[in-house]
Amino acid sequence: MHSIEEQFEKQLDQALESNGLTPLPEDRAALLKAFTTGREQAALVFSVAEARYEEPDLIFSASLS
Amino acid sequence: MTAPDVVAPEEGALSSALTIADAQTALRDGTLTATGLLREAYATADAVDETLGIYLSRFDETAQAAAAAIDAAFAAGEDPGLLAGIPLGIKDIISTTEGETTAQSLVLDRAWGAGVGDAVVVSRLRAAGAVITGKLTTMEYATGVPDPTKPFPIPRNPWNTDYWTGGSSSGTGNGVAAGAILGGLGTDTGGSIRIPSAFCGITGLKATFGRVPKSGCVPLGYSLDNIGPMARSARDCAIMLNALAGYDASDACAVEVPTEDYLAGLDGDLSGLTIGLDRLLGKAPNRDPAVDAALDAVVDVLTGLGATVVEVELPLWQELNAATRITSRSEAFAYHAPDLRSRWGDYFSATRTGVGAAIAFTGADYVQAQRVRRVGQKAVAALFETVDLIITPTSSVAGWKIDELDSMADRFGSMHTGYWNALGNPALALPMGFSGQPRAGGLPLSLQIIGRPFTESLVLRAGDAYQRVTDWHLLTPAAADRSETAVVAS
């Protein structure tokens, strides 16, 4: 069983590789922190029940006028 | 309120308390010339730029020629435009014909800006007679924080040079505050007009998304980016918006909604308006207690102007801030991915780790963030059925020391701007007080006024009314005195 932190580290490594990114070693801690926060933010937007049947506005300004 | 140490405008000289509106009048009654105004602006920059980091490049020659042409037009009895003779700076992610557009980055191909020439907004300012003084500092690609290992100026706050200006429209913020320019263009994807306006004690407007064309600007978040005015007052922002607003087909996001005369409604009267106040208590990891005292004073002022202020709670606060982050990171990564693969180390540290971390998001995350934005728009529209305007603090803190900056990720939660980028509403940041003593290390505090989409006139009317009876926006840092030793350091 891996800890949450270890799972995020593994996911980060996979994402870096699949995106062809080779960060500097000194960036590792900041990247992991941002990656972890990112996954939390993704979970947060999926917690919005009202969005279940909402359509996105992919040309954002269309919904303003 | 009596403001200490206000520098009064003097005939023929640029004081940083001089507003665009003041200069418009003085240029037309002959007490000021465009060439004289530009000379004073550049002299101020000469005195403070090394310390403050305002400019990346200056256009002395073309600016002097433009100012001389304006003077000649005035002498011939012509009125060369709304912004005739006004020295304005341009954040260096917006393309101009003169000089390079760098995005304050080693990575951006300089051929891009050369191919664009003047962005639509720059063309509009020039057509209104503005004198474009140069390109101003930003955070790299309008994101992140300064990186001292890279060969660019580090913008400092003229109120206390130990502190950061905020970003990313940093040079526009400290340039206006120090009196090196009377106004300028910033851009705002998550708060980059409003945050430096807040930290530097000036006024800045993010208009409704799509109101001001953003073509000719290096993108950060395609569905979040705004170009807008930064100046000393709401009235000055209205003057600039009169030149900037309006549809242009070159921007796929521009909206074809009629513009207004944004000066017409600035009558100082807020009678009959209901203003919702969300203090955003408990919504930030840090909170300066001076913010709450300043908000109490704001409520008294607005009530005195005839408005009714009611407490409200903004819906989906955390969720919409998350939507902004997911959207901005993902859209930025789409633009930067090829260069991040090949030139990772050439980017600023905070840029590469911040934008690079977009790999945390899936395509579904991005689409879900857009769906949450729609839900948020409907929820906030429902709130706006009960109030005419909403006010919040722009930030729960007055600023951060430069040597304590690491990444914006840790700071984002104390700034209350990104929520409105997710929604698109117009939002004005304006000074509402100080944390500490002005000119003794203290830093400005800022109020945010938000309206329904395309109600910039009402937002500016409220900001102008507030500034008619307060003078926080006219306070000047010692840097504006133009003494080589006057810049305050605590």
How are the secondary structure elements laid out?
The complex is a heterodimer of chains A (65) and B (490).
Chain A: H1 4-18, H2 28-46
Chain B: H1 20-29, H2 34-52, E1 55-58, H3 60-75, E2 87-91, H4 110-116, H5 120-127, E3 131-136, E4 156-157, E5 160-164, H6 170-178, E6 183-188, H7 194-200, E7 203-206, E8 226-231, H8 234-244, E9 274-277, H9 289-304, E10 308-311, H10 317-343, H11 349-356, H12 363-383, E11 389-393, H13 418-423, E12 427-435, E13 443-450, H14 456-468
Parallel strand pairs in B: 2-3, 2-6, 9-10, 9-11
Antiparallel strand pairs in B: 1-3, 4-5, 6-8, 7-8, 7-12, 11-13, 12-13
Helix pairs in contact in B: 2-3, 2-6, 6-7, 8-14, 10-11, 10-12
Mean pLDDT of chain B: 93
Assign the CATH superfamily of chain B.
Amidase signature (AS) domain
Give the H and E element order of chain A: HH
Which overall shape of chain A is indicated by the principal axes computed on the Cα atoms? elongated
Shape field of chain B: globular
Stretches with pLDDT under 50, minimum 5 residues of chain B: 1-14, 483-490
Helix/strand order of chain B: HHEHEHHEEEHEHEEHEHEHHHEHEEH
CATH architecture of chain B: Alpha-Beta Complex
- Which runs of chain A of at least 5 residues are low in confidence (pLDDT < 50)? none
Query: What's the count of strands of chain A?
Result: 0
Strand content of chain B: 5-15%
Report the biggest beta sheet of chain A as strand number plus sense, adding barrel if it closes: none
Which protein chains make the most extensive interface, counting residues with beta carbons within 8 Å of the other chain's beta carbons? A-B, 42 and 53 residues
Number of strands of chain B: 13
Q: Over all CA atoms, what is the radius of gyration of chain B?
A: 21 Å
N/C terminus separation of chain B: 25 Å
Give the % helix of chain A: 40-55%
- The oligomeric state of the chains shown is heterodimer
For the biggest β-sheet of chain B, the strand order reads: 1-3-2-6-8-7-12-13-11-9-10
Number of domains of chain A: 1
Give the averaged pLDDT of chain A, no decimals. 91
GO molecular function, one term (chain B): catalytic activity
Protein name (chain B): Glutamyl-tRNA(Gln) amidotransferase subunit A
